[in-house]
Design goal:
globular; single chain; alpha+beta; seven-stranded mixed beta sheet; about 30% helix
């Protein structure tokens, strides 16, 4: 997608992010959480836009000690399987490297094999499982990536 732009979030993007969050997850983050992530970590909350419309986002939180946690990644269903999530994550990981982050972790539903495949393609490795992590009782796969 030649016209795809990846940039830091701005307040006008929250509506698009919320729309994608709701379309992507059975237990979406409420708007208040998305706003808190955007306000507290604007440099690590990236959006992908196409012709000015938000079509995806990726967010991470800095946890101290050179560590970060991938908070959320989602792409509008109409734009999935086109490399948008991978481009977002590559940009986010570059931002984290620039902030001297050496370790990134994430939790992903055990059933979300497509996401796990994407994370593996970026160098993440399975670390361990957390039983009953999600509200519906599904386990989470914890994956980690060493950036340095």
């Amino acid at each position: 997608m030649a016209e795809l732009v990846i940039r830091q979030i701005n307040p006008a993007d929250i509506g698009g992010v919320e729309r994608i969050e709701t379309a992507s997850f059975t237990d979406p983050y409420p708007t208040s959480v998305l706003l808190a992530l955007a306000i507290s970590n604007p440099s690590t909350f990236l959006v992908a836009t196409l012709k000015g419309e938000v079509i995806g986002y990726a967010s991470a939180t800095i946890e101290g000690g050179g560590s970060a946690r991938l908070a959320s990644v989602a792409v509008d269903p109409a734009y999935r399987a086109r490399g948008v999530a991978k481009q977002l994550l590559e940009s986010l990981l570059a931002t984290l490297r620039g902030r001297s982050i050496s370790h990134v972790r994430l939790e992903v539903r055990e059933s979300n094999l497509a996401a796990q495949k994407l994370y593996l393609s970026l160098g993440f490795q399975h670390h361990h499982r957390v039983k009953n992590y999600y509200e519906n009782g599904e386990d989470a796969a914890v994956m980690t990536l060493h950036l340095r």
